[in-house]
Write a structure and sequence with these properties.
- The protein is mostly beta strands.
- The protein has a single domain, classed as Methylamine Dehydrogenase, Chain H (7 Propeller).
- The strands form ten sheets. It has a six-stranded antiparallel beta sheet, with no helix packed on it. Strands 29, 32, 33, 34 and 35 form a five-stranded antiparallel beta sheet that branches.
Length: 657
């Protein structure tokens, strides 16, 4: 662990935070000529700087950044390839954790000792090793608005913007005690803020964590991947950052898959940083339409954060089997905007799913200019040479029997997520479509042309969850998709379709499907959703997925994670394929209009497979089920509401065997 670094003096903190806030408000160009620091402490009426500052704001910020009782701070800092410093600052609430958990973390002591009983605090040692839920969350601020509201940005930073809902503040990792039976179960015990970048729009990490892994976490808007060391939980240390200049041929990092050697694959959904031709690691060239556009790429990232290779997701030839628009248009149309990513290292295959040309999904309330920006494609990659993935196949998902109310609600549109099977005897994978409302399956992803077929329509589960809804499956906004680690079940988070006009909308829920018969059918499955009756009632063939349960989930679940750890009789955690619980979060991207209610919930999985909200996982302030991220105060200060996008179950390295 790096030596703790003291907080900078209050005046430097004011400059850093106000500078970041002003930059986020669109004043970057003005900064090129004027130092933000010149505005601090000056009279707004005569201030020559780019943003006026109420003198009272500085003292208020200083108050907010002063550690509260029991909060211990510790900063890890690195110098990135651009020569600038980046950091994670931990804010550990020692009043919530026993000394046995805090010992050995090398964090500074509070007057009178740390919070644990052995260190002079009040929390008794219980002898229980801790498991944590690490949540990647964004500060909720002035830019989380609809397009119509963005014209009302403030012209000065004053006390009315400090510490309130619209404050531009730091994004962070919330470290939540996920240890059943712990007195602090469900409590945020640390917030690890990232800097100096703000408005990252925190998005995905990897799908599952294993001992020794770093966390790879992406910022959609900043085009940055953070590599984070978890070995000393509940504190986190910044190990590296991968910057936009490290991935010139791709932008908008979305999701990650960590391989057994600790390196990772990352999907960069957007096009090259600059429009025009871009040369990839293998020497190939593709023409792109710029940042956040097309085509995206698959990036091989080292555990040290470096870019090992960039691989083009687009083919050289136009991809025209189904219509895929690019704005601006490209010489060779492409659907290559990879979002989901999972790997079967034993098969030498990576699967990615194409979602959308990303810059066009944040135009709310202006509708995206074309339904055909939502992609109907899944890609398989040859990774027999892990560091140099090669595109192997581009598969257009087939259309189904349901007629979409708009073109992008046809079954194959917006292929957001994919998930692979896990056991050696299985070679299949699944994909889901966010707008199409369908689940697809390919029995063998190793062949040159995987055969994808629709095996489930969300109309079926929408109706089961709420028969009184408008249970039509199109636009159901499905997200997280994950096979159980024993290949028996498939989990799916569904935000639901908001009510609008005569449309009553569709329900939000967590779906669990039994896929055992489908996988048992081997290379020749019979299941195929090809009639309207099957759209509503489920597949007629005996090997079609069967609904085990649907858990209503108000607030709109977009993402989830399986808990792959169990506490053994020896007092240590061990990885397991017998998953007993999962977590989900209610947030997508505010600028799309799917903002959710910003809660993180825990779900128990019973022996019969049914799902139930964990009644003990309660908000520490309200006592209600789930953790509400719309709160005024965090361990890092009074920064107000936050947006939790993704999460992982993680333990300290020394606590898992």
């Amino acid at each position: 662990m790096q030596t703790p670094i003291a907080r900078p003096p209050a005046r430097r903190r004011r400059r850093r935070i106000l500078g970041a806030a002003a930059a986020t408000l669109g004043l970057v160009a003005a900064f090129q000529a004027t130092d933000v620091a010149s505005a601090l402490g000056s009279d707004p009426a005569t201030d020559a700087g780019p943003v006026g500052t109420d003198p009272a704001a500085g003292s208020l910020i200083q108050t907010l950044l002063t550690a509260a009782d029991g909060i211990v701070t510790d900063t890890s800092r690195i110098t990135a390839g651009d020569g600038k410093d980046y950091w994670i600052e931990n804010h550990v609430d020692t009043t919530k954790l026993p000394g046995s958990v805090l010992d050995g973390l090398d964090i500074p002591s509070l007057p009178g000792g740390l919070g644990g009983a052995d260190a002079g605090g009040t929390v008794p040692d219980d002898g229980i090793r801790r498991e944590y839920l690490v949540v990647w969350a964004g500060d909720n601020n002035v830019l989380d608005k609809s397009g119509a509201e963005l014209t009302a940005l403030p012209k000065s930073v004053g006390t009315d913007l400090i510490g309130q809902k619209d404050l531009v503040g730091p994004d962070f990792f919330a470290v939540v005690d996920a240890t059943k039976g712990s007195p602090s179960y469900g409590t945020v015990v640390n917030t690890a803020t990232v800097g100096p970048l703000v408005e990252n729009e925190p998005h995905h990490m990897q799908y599952i964590w294993h001992k020794g892994n770093n966390i790879y976490a992406g910022g959609l808007f900043t085009d940055v991947t953070y590599v984070v060391d978890t070995s000393k939980l509940p504190t986190l240390q910044l190990k590296a950052v991968n910057l936009p200049t490290d991935t010139l041929c791709g932008s908008v990092p979305d999701a990650y898959w960590v391989t057994k050697d600790g390196d990772a694959y990352g999907t960069y959904m957007g096009g090259p940083d600059l429009p025009g031709p871009c040369t990839y690691t293998d020497g190939s060239v593709r023409v792109g339409n710029g940042f956040g556009g097309s085509p995206g790429e698959l990036v091989r990232l080292g555990k040290d954060g470096r870019t090992i290779s960039e691989a083009p997701a687009a083919t050289e030839a136009p991809e025209t089997e189904q219509r895929c628009d690019n704005i601006p248009a490209l010489p060779a149309p492409t659907c290559a905007n990879p979002h989901g990513v999972q790997a079967r290292e034993d098969l030498g295959i990576v699967v990615t799913s194409d979602y959308n040309e990303p810059r066009n999904i944040i135009l709310n309330p202006v509708a995206a200019p074309s339904s055909y920006l939502r992609r109907p494609t899944v890609r398989t990659w040859d990774v027999s040479d892990k560091d140099h993935p090669k595109l192997k196949a581009v598969s257009f998902l087939p259309d189904g029997p349901r007629v979409g109310k708009v073109p992008h609600q046809e079954e194959p549109r917006a292929a957001m997520e994919t998930t692979v099977t896990n056991l050696p005897e299985h070679k299949g994978a699944f994909a889901e479509t966010m707008q199409g409302g369908a689940i697809y399956y390919a029995p063998d992803i190793t062949v040159d042309e995987p055969q994808w077929r629709e095996v489930f329509d969300l109309t079926t589960s929408n109706k089961l969850t709420d028969p009184n809804s408008s249970y039509y499956g199109g636009g159901s906004n499905g997200g997280w998709l994950q096979t159980s680690l024993d290949d028996k079940y498939l989990y799916h988070a569904v935000v639901g379709r908001p009510a609008s006009g005569d449309d009553a909308g569709s329900p939000p829920y967590i779906l669990k499907l039994d896929i055992q018969q489908l996988l048992a059918s081997g290379a020749d499955p019979q299941c195929s959703i090809d009639t309207l009756d099957e759209v509503t009632a489920g597949g007629a063939e005996s090997d079609c997925p069967a609904v085990v349960d649907t858990l209503p989930a108000k607030g709109g679940p977009h993402w989830g994670a399986l808990d792959n750890f169990a506490l053994g009789d020896d007092g240590y955690y061990h990885e397991t394929t017998d998953v007993k619980r999962l977590a989900y979060s209610n947030y997508f991207v505010a600028r799309t209009g799917l903002n959710g209610d910003h809660r993180v919930c825990m779900v128990d999985i019973a022996g019969d497979g049914s799902l139930a909200l964990d009644p003990q996982f309660r908000d520490e302030r309200t006592g209600e089920s789930c953790i509400d991220f719309d709160r005024a105060t965090w361990p890092h200060g009074d920064w107000g509401p936050a947006k939790p996008h993704s999460m992982l179950f993680v333990t300290a390295d020394d606590d898992v065997k």
